[in-house]
Amino acid sequence: MDDKKRIYELVSLLKEASKAYYQEAAEIMSNFEYDQLYDELLALEKKTGIVLADSPTQNVGYEVVSALPKETHPSRMLSLDKTKSVETLQSWIGDQVGILSWKMDGLTIVLTYENGILQKAVTRGNGEVGEVVTANVKTFRNVPLHIPFQGRLVLRGEAVMKYEDFAQINAKIADVEAQYKNPRNLCSGSVRQLNSKVTAERNVYFIAFSLVSCEADADGVLPDFQNQRKEQFRWLEEQGFDVVERKVVKQDTMQEAVEAFRDTIGDNAFPSDGLVLLLDDIQYGQSLGTTAKFPRDAIAFKWQDETVETVLKEIEWSASRTGLINPVAVFEPVELEGTTVSRASLHNVSIVEGLKLGIGDVITVYKANMIIPQVGKNKTQSGNITIPALCPVCHAETKIEEENAVKVLRCENPKCLAKQIKSFTHFMSRDAMNVEGLSEATVEKMIAHGYITELADLFHIGKYGAEIIEMEGFGEKSLKNMLASIEKARKTTPAKFLYSLGIDNVGLANAKLICKAFDEDIDAVLSAEVSELVEIDHIGQVIAESVVAYLQDAEHQKNIQDLRKELEIIPPENHAGNIKLEGIQFVVTGAVTQFANRKELQAYIEERGGKVTSSVTSKTNYLINNDNTSTSSKNKKAQELGIPILTEQEFLAKFG
Question: What's the pTM?
Answer without folding.
Answer: 0.53
